[in-house]
Design a protein that fits this description.
Blueprint: H1 3-17, H2 19-38, H3 42-46, H4 48-82, H5 84-123, H6 127-168
C-alpha cells in the first residue's frame, strides 16, 4: 500500500469538495443581493443581512479549508520522506481528532442548532427573526451535506492509515 498516494488522493478529494462551500457562499450572497434589489416585502428585506452573513461565512470556511488542504499535499511528501512511520502516526492522530470533531460538532451540535432554529420559527413572527432562522437552517443543511461526505472520506482514510501502520510495523 502506498500511503503517500492515499494521503495525497484524500487531500485532492478534499480540494474538490471544499469549493462547494464557496459556491454555496456565493449563492447566498447573490440571494442577498437579489433581496436587496428586488425585495418589496418586509420578509424579503429581512433576508438581506442573514443571507449575506451566511454567504460570507460559507465562503470563509471554503477558502480556509481549500488553502489548508492545498498546502497539506506538498507537506505530505516532505513528511513521508523524512520519516514514514512518524508521518503515518501523525496522520492517524489527526484523522482521529477530526473524526471526533465531526461527531461532536457536525453530527451533534449542528442538528441541535437546527432543532432550536426550527423551534424559534414556531414562536416568533418578526420578519428578521424568521429570515435569520430560515437562513441559518439553510446554511447548516449545506454544512451537513458537504461535511457528511467529508466525514465519510476521512473515515475511509483513517482505516487505510491503520492498515498502513500494520504494514510498516511488520
Amino acid at each position: 500500500m502506498d500511503i503517500l498516494k492515499t494521503a495525497t488522493d484524500w487531500a485532492k478529494a478534499e480540494l474538490f469538495s471544499t469549493p462547494f462551500f464557496i459556491l454555496f457562499g456565493v449563492v447566498f450572497m447573490a440571494a442577498s443581493l437579489g433581496f436587496w434589489q428586488l425585495g418589496k416585502t418586509d420578509i424579503a428585506r429581512a433576508y438581506i443581512l442573514p443571507t449575506l452573513v451566511a454567504g460570507v461565512l460559507l465562503t470563509i470556511i471554503g477558502l480556509g479549508l481549500f488553502f489548508t488542504n492545498k498546502s497539506r499535499i506538498t507537506q505530505f511528501e516532505t513528511a513521508y520522506n523524512e520519516d514514514a512511520t512518524a508521518f503515518v502516526e501523525s496522520e492517524i492522530q489527526r484523522a482521529e481528532t477530526t473524526l471526533k470533531e465531526y461527531k461532536n460538532v457536525v453530527f451533534t451540535a449542528i442538528p441541535l442548532i437546527i432543532v432550536v432554529c426550527a423551534l424559534v420559527l414556531f414562536f416568533v413572527s418578526s420578519p428578521i427573526w424568521r429570515a435569520s432562522m430560515i437562513t441559518t437552517l439553510a446554511m447548516l443543511v449545506v454544512i451537513l451535506l458537504i461535511d457528511g461526505t467529508a466525514q465519510a472520506r476521512i473515515d475511509e482514510y483513517s482505516k487505510e492509515l491503520l492498515q498502513a501502520r500494520q504494514e510498516i510495523n511488520k
